[in-house]
Design brief:
Layout (H helix, E strand, L loop, with lengths): L1 H22 L7 H25 L4 H23 L11 H17 L3 H25 L8 H30 L8
Helix pairs in contact: 1-2, 2-3, 3-6, 4-5, 5-6
């Protein structure tokens, strides 16, 4: 019964958010963009979240850490698709693919265990912070909005990954020392 409710909630979120935005004409979506939104939300975030939290610890901090990391990835992917980032004209945008690869490979190596996930997300945050530095060095046209704005945006994403890493580290410490007051 609980699983059926969770699945219904994910389907409602995945279908309703893009559909409502499309109806409100906030974005003029093509059918392919609608399908991409459903795939990213349901397959990317929803399914990954459910698999990660089902197999591992059930603490609220662990679930929040997984959710925060996945939301950061979803927003990063969506912003890049919206502006032609990862698949765009500028080959430097492939660095975002590298950031996501660092996170995915780190999660696989860590087997989604809290201590390893903390390390993987700290590495992901570092990779995210390096993107504008490398882009500035190689001279990409990405700085049309200004250097401060670009570095600020990347710092915001890096901080989302750091926040998730800190939550994972907390879960690892609580798991190692169960006498600590849990967040769950």
């Amino acid at each position: 019964m609980q699983n059926r409710r969770r699945l219904t909630a994910w389907v409602a979120v995945v279908v309703l958010i893009p559909f409502v935005l499309m109806l409100l004409a906030v974005w003029h979506w093509r059918p392919g963009a609608f399908v991409l939104a459903v795939v990213l939300l349901f397959g990317g975030v929803g399914l990954t979240y459910e698999l990660a939290v089902k197999k591992k610890m059930s603490s609220k901090a662990y679930r929040f850490a997984v959710g925060l990391a996945l939301v950061a990835v979803l927003i990063l992917l969506w912003m890049n698709v919206a502006v032609g980032g990862i698949l765009g004209d500028d080959p430097a945008n492939m660095m975002y693919f590298g950031v996501l690869l660092v996170g995915c490979m780190g999660a696989i190596i860590a087997r989604v265990e809290p201590q390893g996930m903390a390390r993987a997300l700290f590495a992901t945050a570092f990779a995210m912070a390096l993107v504008p530095v490398i882009a500035l060095i190689i001279g990409t046209p990405a700085f049309a909005n200004g250097v401060v704005a670009v570095f600020g945006l990347h710092a915001s994403f890096a901080m989302l990954f750091v926040g998730s890493a800190l939550l994972f580290r907390r879960v690892a410490r609580e798991h190692k020392n169960p006498d600590m007051s849990p967040l769950a």
